[in-house]
Specification:
The complex is a heterodimer of chains A (467) and B (483). Chain A is mainly alpha-helical and 467 residues long. Chain A contains 14 helices and 9 strands. In chain A, the strands form 4 sheets. A 3-stranded antiparallel β-sheet of chain A has the order 1-2-7. A two-stranded antiparallel sheet of chain A has the order 3-4. A two-stranded antiparallel ribbon of chain A has the order 5-6. Chain A is globular, with a radius of gyration of 23 Å. In chain B, strands 4, 5, 6, 7, 8, 9, 10, 11 and 18 form a 9-stranded antiparallel β-sheet that branches. In chain B, strands 1-20-19-3-2 form a 5-stranded antiparallel β-sheet. The longest helix of chain B is centred in the first third of the chain and has 30 residues, at 74-103. Classes of the chains: A mainly alpha (467), B alpha+beta (483).
Chain lengths: 467, 483
């Protein structure tokens, strides 16, 4: 029924979206230009970064538009916008490099800068060389989240502490960025494979709802405070850093009412999963219709939560349970909650895209066999890079601390990542794992990569304190 | 009984060498290593912090399981050994097959092989030699070295490239074992310690991390150490000038910095820390007589130095506090860190028959700076420094790094070097007398790319077939038969 409806629709000419995105880009560039006129400084990093964001956002919208309507002309403009964003991104990197005198790999901010750059390059390569056209639908939003995070984590140019003054550091981090970007690409390809492999739409519903739910559950479990408040890290705007009570212990402030809002959103986000469960249990598909409506509702509520969160957490002073007085907080103090919220919305939107436009998507993607093979090839690229990344890191550590392997959390998790991909390769080559199982394996691998990249830095203590 | 034992042995071997066993072991390694990053680890975390983080029962439980020091626990090391054993067993199990494949290339395809191999193609040819020459030329053009294979009744063309690719996976596994071997050697015979030297000091005693001390057969002398800062005050560089002293002679000298250690007879010295040792190297002052008669004098003192200022006045540098506190009219040393320094001079005047305590800074109720016969102005305070050196001996390092290089080469071969084989066999139907050239090929990876190459080859053979004149072909077959 839904399928028939889709096919009845007139093929869109596609001009509307292009014009809208073009206007938005022009408007934002014009605003930026006004800013430049005011400050009289055109070529600085902030402007480059802003341009990067605008173009990637435009590209993301157009890729999404292509995914939704299947209009080929969107794709051309989307690639064009990605190219423009890449140029701005390159300029931002070059500027940073020139200003600091070292390759931009010394902080989370600088590494994100390089990561987003690599991701954009690989997106264009996948699109031009392998004909995976809608890859930008997945990678561009990731890039956008990256650039937004960068704005928050923006740091001044710090001189390198002695341990970081090594060529091996640059080799190590370059390899890491390349490897991680290749892993991200294999993840996106594996997802597309699953779509082409007729993974049931409701299974995708369950998985996307579960991931969004996981975001809210972890926020509410760790940050919910008495009387419906939400704990956020206090921020010292003068030194641009979190407020520490003692070594490693952060000061939290309580933002009132946000906790209730988060809990409410959690319940609504959970409801599609509940309906899905009911549909499976009662074997009644009418629950699935309910579940889809619940997804729609949950997106509205998630957007509202995000807006409220941004408004309340952007600035303002709040009381704390651990210290007297009022303390300021800012978005930069809670990068993970913010990216969790944005990521949740994005995941739900992807599901809607699949729900509404599955036949079009399937038509514009390469065949399942091809996607499977390209995923494998990307991992064949990622695995040697991972190996060399670990080896160069070990060599650097040996030059600096006199020990090539000390089982610090980042090292251990890099080894775990390596083992997971080694497992993938063995299962594929000797056991002939293809298709679904291989795709799940690739997705698991990328989850571990993400944990190694972000989770270890922020959740586990270790020597990699600079990163 | 004996038979049973053999069956059991065979079964055990199959289990050890199977890929499932390897994967299960790897999953175990992953889970335990992950646990080791989540639970605080013993040698790195100090006991107080551990007690703050966990309740006593939980801590006792974790300790009993060895989870507070996962990476040195016997079961974790045992697990890694088991992984190595499975890698070795799996390689031994599979190697002979691959070696046969590698050492005795399959050069002439028999009929059943010709039926099954993909991709393949048959082209019509005038006679056998025409086909062979065309195939040879086409392969030459593609950069191969085709070889004529002669069997009793038939002959063909064989060409291949990158046969080593078949063995690449063993290179990777062998280098992994080499790395493991290196770490085991380091674990058994290597050690890591710390050496702290003041400027000018010589020592050969290393504090090992487990609390013991190790005496080196040579000594290290620190000829100087320093720190350079960026403009914003953050450290840019630490350096130490070190000399190796053996049998009373300087045998090696080097200025080390972070990332650039000194290596002597397998022991490496790394710049690890640098700081003030709380002692004074030189305290420079200008002394002016209080009564205004007489000249200014510049003096330099170290602790316990005495200098005469005039015939009946001397000054002695009595004490130096890197971090002082005053309690009940007494000055105490609070810590060894250079936080809040104070210097104590004693001016002895024979004329007054009395000692005056001069303090920098002039501490209230303690200092009688203004009463002293001389007024002092501090111009410079040079402090002594120590340099902290990380010392390590890793005899297995060579194995680790050669393993790393090998694994790089091995992986490049595994993923990017493709073993390609091409065969061309002329087949003539004895009834009709019509001949065709059978062409087949295999590649051990990247088959989609290979298929493209194969069709390029076929096209090239077809082109050559048109070019090869018949006459020259029959001449060649004559010479060939004559050999």
């Amino acid at each position: 029924m839904a399928r028939a409806k889709v096919e009845q629709q007139q093929p869109a000419t596609g001009m509307t979206l292009i014009v809208l995105v073009g206007l938005a880009i022009a408007f934002l560039l014009f605003m930026a230009f006004l800013n430049v006129v005011k400050s009289g400084n055109l070529l600085n990093e902030t402007n480059f970064l802003f341009a990067t964001l605008i173009f990637y956002a435009g590209a993301g919208a157009l890729y999404l538009g292509f995914g939704v309507t299947g209009t080929q002309s969107y794709l051309k403009f989307a690639s064009l916008s990605t190219w423009a964003g890449l140029v701005a991104n390159t300029a931002a990197i070059a500027h940073r490099w020139y200003e600091s005198g070292h390759a931009p790999f010394a902080s989370v901010y600088e590494m994100l800068l390089s990561f987003v750059w690599t991701l954009a390059v690989l997106t264009l390569v996948a699109e031009k060389k392998y004909g995976v056209k809608v890859i930008g639908t997945v990678t561009m939003p990731v890039a956008i989240v990256g650039v937004v995070l960068m704005q928050l984590l923006r740091t001044d140019v710090h001189p390198l502490v002695p341990a970081l003054q090594s060529t091996w550091l640059h080799v190590h981090v370059t390899l890491a960025m390349l490897a991680y970007a290749a892993c991200a690409l294999s993840f996106a390809l594996a997802m597309m494979f699953l779509i082409q492999d007729n993974l049931k739409t409701e299974t995708v519903l369950a998985v996307t709802s579960a991931s969004t739910l996981a975001v809210y559950v972890s926020i509410v479990l760790t940050r919910f405070e008495k009387w419906g408040g939400l704990n956020l890290v206090a921020w010292n705007p003068e030194v641009k850093s979190e407020v520490f009570l003692s070594k490693g212990v952060r000061l939290f402030v309580v933002v009132p009412d946000l906790g209730w809002l988060m809990t409410l959103t959690l319940l609504v986000v959970a409801s599609p999963l509940v309906f899905y469960g009911l549909a499976r249990w009662k074997k009644n598909d009418s629950f699935l219709t309910l579940a889809n409506r619940a997804v729609f509702l949950s997106i509205l509520l998630q957007v509202m939560t995000l807006v409220m969160f941004v408004l309340r957490a952007r600035d303002g002073r709040y009381s704390s349970l651990d210290a007297d007085g009022l303390f300021p907080t800012t978005l930069a103090a809670s990068p993970f909650i913010l990216s969790g919220l944005v990521g949740g919305i994005f995941i739900s939107l992807l599901y809607l895209l699949l729900l509404w436009r599955r036949p079009d998507l399937e038509r514009s993607l390469p065949s399942a066999d091809n996607l499977d093979r390209i995923t494998y090839k990307t991992i064949c690229l990622a695995f040697p890079l991972l190996t060399l990344m670990i080896a160069s890191g070990a060599y650097w550590a040996n030059q600096t601390w006199g020990s090539y392997w000390s089982w610090d959390p980042k090292e251990t998790w890099a080894a775990i990542t390596w083992l997971v991909y080694a497992g993938y390769l063995h299962m594929r080559i000797t056991r002939g794992w293809r298709g679904r199982r291989a795709a799940y394996f690739a997705i698991l691998g990328f989850a571990v990569v993400m944990f190694t990249f972000f989770g270890v830095t922020y959740l586990l203590p270790g020597l990699h304190a600079y990163a | 009984m004996a038979l049973d034992l053999r069956a059991l042995g065979h079964k055990t071997w199959r289990t050890i060498a199977s890929i499932q066993t390897g994967v299960v072991l790897l999953i175990l390694v992953v889970i335990l290593a992950a646990a080791g990053t989540v639970v605080l680890q013993r040698p790195a975390t100090d006991p107080d912090e551990m007690q703050n983080a966990y309740s006593p029962q939980v801590l006792r439980f974790l300790d009993a399981l060895g989870l507070t020091d996962v990476f040195h626990a016997w079961w974790f090391i045992g697990l890694l050994v088991l992984v190595s054993v499975t890698i070795i067993a799996a390689s031994i199990d599979r190697f002979p097959n691959s070696w046969r494949y590698f050492s005795r290339p399959y050069k002439y395809p028999d009929e059943s092989f010709r039926r099954s191999v993909r991709p393949q193609k048959s082209l019509a040819i005038a006679d056998e030699e025409t086909g062979l020459v065309a195939a040879e030329r086409a392969l030459h053009e593609m950069g191969f070295k085709p070889e004529r294979v002669v069997r009793q009744n038939n002959f063909g063309i064989f060409a291949e490239r990158h046969r080593i690719s078949e063995l690449a996976v063993y290179i990777v596994h062998a280098s992994l074992l080499l790395i493991f071997f290196g770490t085991v050697v380091d674990g058994l015979w290597g050690w890591r310690g710390y050496l702290s030297l003041n400027e000018g000091q010589t020592s050969n005693l290393i504090d090992i991390h487990d609390g013991s001390t190790r005496t080196l057969p040579f000594s290290i002398r620190c000829d100087g150490a320093g720190q350079e800062n960026y403009q914003d005050g953050s450290p840019k560089k630490w350096w130490s000038k070190l000399a190796v002293v053996q049998d009373g002679r300087d045998v090696q000298k080097k200025e080390i910095v972070v990332n650039d250690p000194l290596l002597y007879s397998g022991v490496r010295f790394y710049q690890a820390s640098y700081g003030s040792n709380g002692k004074v190297d030189k305290f420079s002052l200008i002394a002016t007589p209080s009564n205004g008669s007489g000249e200014k004098q510049e003096i330099g003192l170290t602790v316990n130095d005495s200098v005469p200022l005039d015939a009946d006045t001397t000054v002695r540098f009595a004490e130096f506090f890197p971090d002082y506190a005053v309690r009940d009219g007494q000055v105490y040393k609070k810590s060894n860190y250079l936080e809040n320094p104070a210097a104590h001079l004693v001016v002895t005047s024979k004329k007054a028959g009395k000692d005056f305590d001069v303090w920098f800074p002039p501490i209230e109720d303690v200092a009688d700076n203004s009463k002293a016969p001389y007024q002092f102005q501090a111009t410079d305070l040079k402090l002594g420094h120590y340099t902290g050196l990380q010392v390590s001996h890793e005899p297995g390092q060579w194995a680790v790094w050669s393993g790393v290089v090998l694994i790089g080469i091995g992986l490049a071969c595994v993923f990017y070097v493709v073993h390609m084989r091409f065969w061309a066999v002329p087949v003539c139907d004895p009834k009709t007398g019509k001949c065709s050239l059978w062409i087949g090929g295999t590649a051990n990876r990247n088959r989609d790319v290979f298929e493209q190459r194969f069709s390029d080859l076929v096209a090239s053979v077809q082109k050559e077939l048109k070019l090869v004149p018949r006459t020259s072909a029959s001449e060649q077959i004559a010479t060939f038969a004559g050999d």
